[in-house]
Write a structure and sequence with these properties.
Distance between the termini of chain B: 74 Å
Number of helices of chain A: 1
Radius of gyration of chain A: 14 Å
Helix content of chain B: 40-55%
Number of helices of chain B: 46
Oligomer: heterodimer
Structural class of chain A: mainly beta
Largest interface: A-B, 25 and 29 residues
Structural class of chain B: alpha/beta
Distance between the termini of chain A: 4 Å
Strand content of chain A: over 45%
Radius of gyration of chain B: 34 Å
Largest sheet of chain A: 8 strands, antiparallel
Shape of chain B: globular
Strand content of chain B: 5-15%
Shape of chain A: elongated
Largest sheet of chain B: 7 strands, mixed
Number of strands of chain B: 22
Order of helices and strands of chain A: EEEEEHEEE
């Protein structure tokens, strides 16, 4: 396993499930039905403002565990999807 | 289609985020046809939920979230328990008794043969599984238990041990064998796989249910409406755990929101292996929901008035006939000298009221209230009615109210009419010191199966919200204190706005630019605004029902030990429950005490309710403006108004009390009334028909009763109808309809267009600002009685005020008033003082003896011992028999309570310094000698008795008195600053009255009150009252002055104020303040600026 933590661009299907992503110049295709969960963020030590309506993004992060491949080798990837306000970011957290 | 069966509302204090009404509206907008409420540990939000469901047209479902333990008290699970619906109330009653049982009350054991309800001692809210199963089984399936993730079974599926999970499930299956009493709750909060709340856990719970062949239902463990609310839930968790965020396990994510049906169906598919199973999961959830849909009327007795059974009131036969006879019989008692004409009027009015009561079927209700009132009188407790109930002759005749509605021109229709069918509120004021005795007697009289106290939900306001937000964010306690201290009458909801505007919050405003935590604090504070915070006993509400009461409400223990309903006052009317407000009023206790002391010391038997209500000496006292201690008219604002108003008769008091209310003040009624009264303006009655109605207030519409009569006279509608119109006037949507009615009817009756127009404008503008005259008159009675006592028995009255502390001012201001009245104050003396402020005869005069129990730190047990063991001859005798703690012993010596005891058997004349030296010597010895009760004096040896210690100076005495008693009775605390004050030319408060308008002045004193009353302009004005030993000076701070010195106005004790005098009436002068300072700071500067003197260290420290 390798910790990565890099921004990636991700393509999603209409229900929000990732289908492809780009990482270090390579295009990866998702091969399985990804597993999704939501994990915590510690807004009290990270956020600058939490007014009503700020959105759940200050508190939780959508995580995806998926199998993808660039062509030959299949690998497991863990992607994090952060959406706070108008920010909408995908980060690659881990590669297995 | 989907129904949420697990949803906590904001009434789950420190857990839920969303008010039931909002939850229900959202559910309806999602197209849901039913919604459950399952608050934690109680049915707190249930009635509001049902009400909201009725109004949007979906089916209510009610349950509870409770902790379940095994027989040894070990936690097994937190489960959801839901009431079956449409079964004639069995399910609802079962749910109520389960919740009550979790709070320690086995309500199934109480009935008329055994009307006392015992509570099992428990330290937490939980129910044993065996007890839960028994109650559910006895009701033949009245409730369904949902066993979910947070359970022994749920934990073991997470550990992936199917055998263990099955073994743990077995006792649940055995105990809840009746069909439909147990189901598996399947929930995914989409947490990380393998953790609690994950889809994996949900899938295994479902498999377990299938394996054991019991139904499974899908929920989302809802605790907020939208994902955004999860932040608020975090903060509430912190408040519940009393730990900052980051120091406890927080919720896993923001998924516990009220998801719409499509989202729930998607979750079902995510959990289940195949779509068919997913569909069945949803279907089974709906099937259970269907069984649980409540019929509010059939199940909860919605809207059906409930009163005690006749036999409990000692009534036989038709209750209406009994009511009629009782009222009729009292006519000759209440109107002993009435003329034939007056009697005709009384009987006419009585018949009208009785007809209305008969039509509404409320005879039993009136008899119930009368029965309680009689019980209170039999206890020899003072009682008075308050509110619109004073407008009823029946109430007057039954002894519920002491105000004659005919004499004071009060209207029954404002109180009760056939246009409304809800039970009216009759509020009773009693002596505060006896309130709990009265509650206990009500329980005894009607039985615990018919009575319970009312609860109330306190909600987050400014200060509390700031505190809990600060705690959650990990601010240190000092910082939180500092912040909270300055939050004064600020709604948490507009906190950021307030921070930008209020000068005393400038520090926060400043921090917002740079401090991230401070920004979070402000945001979080706003989120908490108005959320229910905790439940407590309502200050005056008692619910009286029939023997089925505890099948309709759940109960828990109140602060005073008696059970209270989990429903609040807003729930009473929808449920049809009879709520009696028995409010403890300290003034009633103070007056009862004064009457008792008059009887004890002077042997005079005084009937306070029978005194002449037109006593000119009493009104003379009131007009001086020295109203301190007088009920309702002692606040700075009322004092100022008294000076301007100069009341001369009882009705003036009614008017004055009514005028000084937010409504009339906002409606700008005071100035035109005073102008008319003092002849500055000719009263304008608009039309001669209105003159008789408005004569008393010089043409100003003040009372609801005025509006009723105007509508009645000008449109010809009945008074009952007029009250309905008046109520509707407050509703902007209804107003056009009423305007049309008014204009048409008055035009038909020939009023000129100009008159119609002007009257309508008055009605439209003033009606919502008005006040109920009956309420004002009911208040005016104790106002007058207290003024009368103060006029004729000032010593006894002051003793009553000291003992029961009824007013808004600290005791030391009462002391200043006593000084002004020439009432002598006697020091604490262990041989003479008791736990009350006794009146003592000294020569031919009467004086007030200070009580012993107000000394700082003295315990009730110590006081009891002193009272039981005295008299004491010397200090050793006191020491060995009263057995004071070291600290109390020293305090008693310091305050001078031992001054009159001898030092030893043959001590010389001694000073308080000698007493203190001896006490310290005794305190320093290791062990107290064992006392022998039959030995009057001590014979053990103290060694040499101390002599030659100096008597403390006045300044030292005052310092001690303030520290230990809060009463500077040797001299006023300000006297020590006199040299500086005289040098600065500071004016004494009693000199203000002789000063010209707009003179520049300085006043000083102890800050005794700071008020920010509602103002017409909406701008905040701060009133500060200072006491300087010569009376009170009242200063007004407007915007600019507030900016200069806001830090002084709310927190500083000794204050110097500069400003200009402002004449407000014949006897009224207040100060338009310009600035304020901390007197102690000025003093130390002053001292430093001169040569050091010997005694400065006493004060400057």
């Amino acid at each position: 396993m390798a910790r990565v933590d890099e921004l990636v661009t991700v393509a999603i299907d209409p229900t929000g499930i990732p289908t492809e992503f780009n990482w270090r110049g390579g295009g990866y295709r998702v091969l399985n039905r990804p597993v999704r969960w939501f994990t915590r963020r510690e807004w009290w030590s990270e956020a600058t403002r939490v007014p009503k309506g700020v959105g759940a993004g200050v508190l939780e992060v959508e995580m995806w565990l998926l199998v993808a491949s660039e062509g030959r080798e299949k690998r497991h990837f863990e992607l994090a999807h952060c959406a706070v306000g108008d920010k909408n970011q995908w980060r690659l957290h881990r590669v297995y | 289609m989907f129904t949420h069966l697990h949803a906590a509302s904001a009434y789950s204090a420190h857990y839920g985020v969303t008010r039931p009404e909002l939850m229900v509206e959202a559910a309806a907008s999602y197209g849901m046809t039913a919604l459950a409420i399952t608050d934690r540990d109680g049915l707190y939000g249930a009635i509001k939920h049902i009400g909201a469901c009725i109004s949007v047209g979906i089916a209510p479902i009610v349950g509870v979230s409770l902790e379940v333990t095994d027989d040894l008290g070990e936690r097994l699970a937190r489960v959801i328990i839901l009431a079956r619906g449409r079964d004639g109330g069995i399910g609802w009653a079962t749910l109520c008794s389960i919740v009550s049982a979790a709070h320690g009350y086995d309500v199934t054991k109480v009935d008329d043969r055994k009307p006392k309800l015992q509570r099992n001692k428990t330290d937490r809210v939980a129910i044993r599984r065996g007890d839960l199963a028994r109650i559910v089984a006895e009701s033949l399936g009245g409730c369904t238990v949902l066993l979910g993730n947070d359970s022994d079974v749920g934990q073991s599926v997470l550990a992936n041990s199917r055998d263990e999970a099955l073994a743990l499930l077995q006792p649940w299956l055995d105990l809840f064998a009746v069909p439909n009493t147990l189901a598996i709750e399947v929930t995914t909060l989409l947490t990380e796989p393998t953790t609690e709340g994950s889809t994996l856990q949900a899938g295994r719970m479902l498999q377990l249910a299938d394996f054991a062949d019991i139904p499974a239902v899908l929920t989302n463990q809802v605790r907020y409406l939208n994902p955004d609310d999860a932040v608020t839930a975090d903060v509430l968790d912190a408040a519940r755990f009393l730990e900052p965020l980051g120091f406890f396990r927080v919720q896993p994510n923001a998924q516990a929101w009220l998801k719409p049906p499509a989202a729930m169906q998607a979750l079902a598919r995510e959990i289940c292996a195949d779509d068919e199973r997913a569909r069945r999961l949803i279907r089974d959830t709906e099937m259970l929901a269907e069984r649980l849909r409540l019929d509010p009327v059939g199940d909860c007795g919605w809207g059906k008035p409930k009163t005690p059974e006749q036999h409990t009131l000692g009534i036989e036969g038709d209750p209406f006939r009994v009511l009629q006879e009782k009222a009729q019989a009292a006519v000759s008692y209440r109107y002993p000298n009435a003329s034939v004409e007056q009697l005709r009027q009384v009987n006419h009015r009585l018949n009208q009221e009785l007809i209305t009561i008969a039509q509404l079927g409320f005879a039993t209700y009136f008899l119930t209230v009368a029965d309680v009132a009689q019980m209170i009188r039999d206890m020899k407790v003072r009682i008075a009615a308050r509110g619109s109930g004073a407008g009823s002759l029946v109430n007057y005749l039954l002894g519920i109210s002491g105000v004659d509605p005919i004499e004071h021109d009060l209207l029954f229709e404002r109180f009760l009419s056939t246009e409304r069918s809800s039970l009216p509120d009759i509020d009773i004021d009693v002596e505060s010191a006896r309130r709990h005795d009265i509650y206990r007697n009500i329980f005894k009289r009607y039985g615990s199966n018919r009575v319970t106290l009312l609860s109330m939900q306190s909600t987050y306001r400014g200060r509390g919200a700031v505190r809990d937000s600060g705690l959650a964010l990990g601010l240190d306690e000092d910082e939180i204190d500092q912040l909270a201290k300055n939050v004064w009458r600020i709604s948490a909801g507009s906190f950021r706005n307030a921070v930008g505007q209020k000068p005393e919050l400038a520090a926060i405003q400043h921090a917002l630019d740079s401090d991230r935590k401070m920004n979070l604090l402000v945001d979080v504070t706003e989120r908490l605004n108005r959320l229910p915070r905790h439940i407590s006993m309502h200050p005056c509400g008692v619910i009286l029902g029939d023997s089925s009461l505890l099948r309709l409400t759940s109960i828990e223990q109140s602060g005073m030990g008696l059970p209270m309903s989990q429903f609040d006052k807003d729930d009473m009317d929808p449920l049809g429950m009879l709520k009696l407000d028995v409010l403890g009023v300290r003034m009633q206790s103070a007056m009862a005490y004064a009457v008792r002391e008059i009887g004890r010391v002077r042997k005079e038997n005084l009937d306070l309710d029978g005194i002449d209500k037109a006593d000119s000496a009493t009104f003379k006292t009131i007009r001086t403006g020295n109203t301190l201690g007088m009920f309702q008219i002692e606040s700075p604002g009322q004092r100022e108004l008294t000076g301007k108003h100069q009341p001369t008769e009882f009705n003036d008091l009614t008017i004055q009390i009514s005028l000084f209310r937010p409504g009339p003040m906002k409606g700008n009624m005071i100035a035109p009334y005073l102008d008319g009264r003092h002849g500055f303006e000719e009263p304008d009655f608009i039309h001669r028909d209105l003159e008789p109605i408005l004569r008393e207030t010089f043409g100003v519409v003040v009372f609801h009763e005025h509006v009723l009569r105007i509508l009645n006279v000008m449109t010809g509608c009945s008074l009952a109808k007029a009250d309905e119109l008046r109520r509707s006037l407050e509703d902007p949507r209804a107003k056009p309809r009423i305007e049309e009615f008014f204009r048409t009817k008055t035009a038909e009756r020939g009023y000129p267009a100009g008159v119609i127009e002007r009257v309508w404008q008055v009605l439209e503008g003033f009606s919502s600002f008005g006040f109920c005259k009956a309420h004002g008159a009911a208040f005016a009675l104790p106002t007058y009685q207290s003024a009368w006592l103060k006029t004729h028995y000032p010593v006894e009255f002051m003793a009553g005020l000291f003992t029961h502390d009824p007013g808004m001012y600290p005791r030391r201001l009462l002391l200043a008033e006593a000084r002004r009245l020439g009432v002598a104050i006697l020091p604490v003396d262990v041989n003479k003082s008791t736990d009350e402020y006794l009146v003592e005869k000294v020569g031919d005069e009467f004086a007030v003896r200070l009580a012993i129990n107000d000394i700082a730190g003295i315990s009730q047990a110590e006081v009891d011992r002193i009272l039981a063991e005295r008299p004491f001859t010397d200090i050793g005798d006191f020491y060995s028999r009263a057995k004071p703690s070291r600290r109390s012993f020293e305090h008693l010596a310091e305050i001078g309570a031992l001054d009159d005891l001898k030092l030893g058997d043959f001590g010389p004349k001694h000073t308080r310094g000698d007493v203190l030296a001896l006490v310290r010597k005794l305190n320093s010895s290791k062990k107290r000698k064992p006392s022998e009760h039959d030995q009057p004096t001590l014979d053990f040896d103290f060694g040499d008795l101390p002599t030659g210690n100096p008597e403390p100076s006045n300044a030292e005495k005052v310092e001690t008195e303030l520290r230990l008693l809060g009463l500077d009775y040797t001299e006023h605390v300000l006297e020590q600053y006199r040299p500086m004050l005289d040098e600065m030319g500071v004016v004494r408060s009693n000199e203000l009255v002789d000063m010209r308008n707009k003179t520049d002045v300085l006043v000083a004193g102890v800050r005794v009150a700071t008020q920010t009353p509602p103002m017409r302009s909406g701008k905040r004005v701060v009133f500060v009252s200072l006491d300087d030993g010569y009376g009170c000076s009242d200063a007004t701070f407007f915007d600019e002055a507030q900016r200069r010195c806001s830090h002084i106005l709310f927190n500083t004790k000794l204050v110097l104020i500069s400003g200009k005098t402002r004449r407000t009436g014949v006897r009224g002068v207040s100060i338009m303040a310009e600035n304020a300072w901390d007197l102690r700071e000025l003093w130390s500067q002053w001292i430093n600026s001169r040569q050091p003197t010997a005694d400065q260290n006493v004060l400057a420290s």
